[in-house]
Design brief:
The protein has helices spanning 2-5, 9-31, 33-40, 47-96, 99-104, 107-149, 151-198, 200-205, 214-261, 267-308, 367-374, 397-401, 418-423, 431-440, 444-449, 467-481, 497-511, 546-551, 556-565; strands at residues 327-334, 344-351, 356-360, 382-387, 390-391, 404-407, 485-489, 515-519, 531-536, 539-544, 568-573, 576-581. Helices cover 62% and strands 11% of the residues. It is α/β, with parallel strands linked by helices. Helix 2 (9-31) runs parallel beside helix 6. The two termini are 65 Å apart. It is built from 19 helices and 12 strands. It folds into 3 domains: 2-308, ABC transporter type 1, transmembrane domain (ABC transporter transmembrane region fold), CATH 1.20.1560.10; 325-403 and 511-583, P-loop containing nucleotide triphosphate hydrolases (Rossmann fold, 3-Layer(aba) Sandwich); 406-482, P-loop containing nucleotide triphosphate hydrolases (Rossmann fold).
């Protein structure tokens, strides 16, 4: 909890000290019943002494109330701040997390940690921590009081505690395991819900939406069974611990009565002990029940700690900011986590500064991996990637990404205004600079026709815009960033012919004077590249210009070119389906 409190750990420690003081005062208040009852049942009754004990009891109650009020101040004043600070720390960790590790974690899982787990952790810090202190401190003091009054009655409480503790520990162990499983099931469900919402059009089209969605049904069933198992596993030990506590009270009353009848203990003392013991037993029985809440919070704290413990990519010493922007792969071998075979196998090439290099080849050949390594998605297991002669492992990820602009085939826009989405590239950009970038990307025209212009919200993932419009916004964002290195993942592949022409014009403006690496699926888009690298099974099998590669008629590039020239596009004609060659 102290770790999760983060910058508010000093205030949390102070709250814990206040809680301990309040619990001790509360125990002392209950202890005053012993001398008070002794005075009230004495012969003669010493009224003055009794009032002194009543006055002390009142003072202790008031002091406890004041301390409890100060104790709850953390809940009211810092709970939301702890939640906010925890989420900011998690956000900073996600920002520094290696992209490969980030890609491994499901979006719903991360949403669960940053959302519900952060809230649960703050709740544990503000409420459960003080309750835990109260459940421990009050019985401890009252147990000492009962032992001081009569060691035989005290031994009953000690025996009950020793008998109940193993059951409480059993509840703890079972709840710990159970709630970790529940938490994982909740995370799986959150991931599937995100997937379900994003893929709803496909699920509807295939009849897998609603109650017919097997993916949702599976994780919902798993969550139900995890919750049921967690609750059932702890039910018997909880009942056993509570039974022991109740039997201890019965034994205490019976023993106290026997001692009183035998004139070895005064009735007033017996009554005082029973009242004190009842207050002793209540937290002990409650602890067995509350253990589940403690373990549930512990599971949330564990997941937060696990995320915060993720190490960022190491930065080797000796790095200098690149002054040139050529790219070099020197004998690079890279395999993704969990894969035995490398995706790139001893790959070497150079991308000269201010040149265009195209990557072509079948799916899975390593094209996207090359662009990922340029942006330091991960470090290769062997070999070196350099920018301007500087090993990427010596550069801070943020420093590296300032030199790189990326345009993906699938554009992600945030549910905000067009202006805000463009300004992500340069938060300090003026409205004039944003408009200039939009004009260069052929986006100003359609933006001006929107109801609110640049202040129009684009919807979730840019759903209010067409594919071509989203792509032009993405290119405008890259133009605004004005990075010297541009990575393109075939940004026109999913566009219609008209949109492709407009977007291609925008790309031409974006890449002017830049070091460009483009993943090409349509070979016709890269015939003018300075060099083309042909990849197959993680190796570069050919490289050269378009003309040079076509000269090798048996080479993979020439075969791919001929296959694309021979591709047919079907459309509806006046007399039915017709085919036409596509250059």
């Amino acid at each position: 909890m102290l770790t999760a409190a983060g910058p508010y750990a000093p205030q949390f420690r102070r709250t814990l000290r206040i809680s301990l003081a309040a619990s001790l005062v509360q125990a002392a208040a209950y202890a005053t019943f012993v001398p008070l009852l002794a005075e009230l049942t004495g012969d003669p009754v010493r009224t003055g002494q009794a009032w002194l004990w009543v006055g002390l009891l009142a003072v202790l109650v008031v002091v406890e109330a004041i301390l409890r009020a100060r104790e709850t101040a953390f809940t009211y004043d810092y709970w939301h701040l702890v939640t906010q600070a925890t989420r900011l720390r998690l956000g900073a960790k996600l920002r520094a997390m290696p992209q490969q590790e980030l890609a491994r974690r499901a979006a719903g899982d991360l949403t669960s940690v940053v959302g519900s787990n952060a809230t649960a952790a703050a709740g544990a810090i503000s409420s459960l921590s003080t309750l835990f202190i109260q459940l421990v401190a009050v019985p401890a003091v009252l147990g000492v009081v009962v032992l001081a009054l009569d060691w035989r009655l005290g031994l009953v409480l000690v025996a009950a505690t020793l008998a109940a503790l193993p059951l409480v520990r059993q509840v703890q162990r079972r709840a710990n395991s159970g709630f970790h499983q529940v938490d994982r099931a909740d995370a799986d469900l959150a991931a599937r819900i995100v997937e379900y919402v994003q893929g709803l059009p496909v699920l509807k089209a295939t009849g897998q939406a609603g109650s017919h969605s097997p993916r949702l049904r599976t994780v919902l069933g798993h969550q139900h069974h995890a919750q049921l198992a967690a609750n059932r596993s702890a039910a018997l030990p909880v009942a056993g611990a509570q039974l022991i506590v109740q039997l201890a009270l019965v034994a205490l009353v019976a023993l106290g009565s026997a001692l009183a009848l035998g004139l070895r203990l005064s009735p007033a003392t017996v009554v005082a002990v029973v009242v004190t013991a009842a207050r002793f037993a209540e937290p002990l029985g409650l602890a067995a029940v509350m253990t589940k809440l403690f373990e549930q919070s512990e599971a949330a704290l564990h997941r937060i700690d696990d995320l915060l413990a993720t190490e960022p990519l190491p930065v080797a010493p000796g790095g200098q900011r690149p002054t040139a922007h050529d790219i070099a792969f020197d004998d690079v071998t890279f395999a993704y986590d969990g894969q035995d075979e490398p995706t790139l196998d001893h790959v070497s090439f150079t991308v000269p500064e201010r040149s265009l290099t195209a990557l072509v080849g079948p799916s899975g050949s390593g094209k996207t991996t090359i662009t990922k390594l340029i942006s330091r998605y991960a470090d290769p297991q062997h070999g070196t990637v350099r920018l301007g002669g500087t090993d990427l492992r010596t550069l801070e990820p943020d420093d590296l990404l300032r030199h790189i602009a990326v345009v993906f085939q699938d554009v992600y826009l945030f549910d905000d205004t067009i202006r805000a989405n463009l300004a992500l590239a340069r938060p300090d950009a003026t409205d004039a600079e944003i408009e200039t970038a939009a004009r260069a990307a052929n986006a100003h025209g359609f933006i001006s026709r929107l109801p609110d212009g640049y202040d129009t919200r684009v919807g979730e993932i840019g759903s209010a815009l067409s594919g071509g419009e989203r792509q032009r916004i993405s290119i405008a964002r890259a133009i605004l960033k004005d990075a010297p290195v541009v990575l393109l993942d075939e940004p026109t592949a999913a566009l219609d012919t008209e949109s492709e022409v407009v977007v291609q014009q925008a790309i031409d403006r974006l890449v002017t004077g830049k070091t460009v690496v483009v993943i090409a699926h349509r070979l016709s888009t890269v015939v003018g590249a300075d060099q083309i690298l042909v990849l197959d099974a993680g190796r570069i099998t050919q490289h050269g210009t378009h003309t040079e590669l076509l000269a090798d008629r048996d080479g993979r590039y020439a075969r791919m070119w001929r296959a694309q020239l021979a591709a047919r596009v079907w459309h509806l004609g006046g007399s039915g389906l017709e085919s036409a060659g596509r250059p």
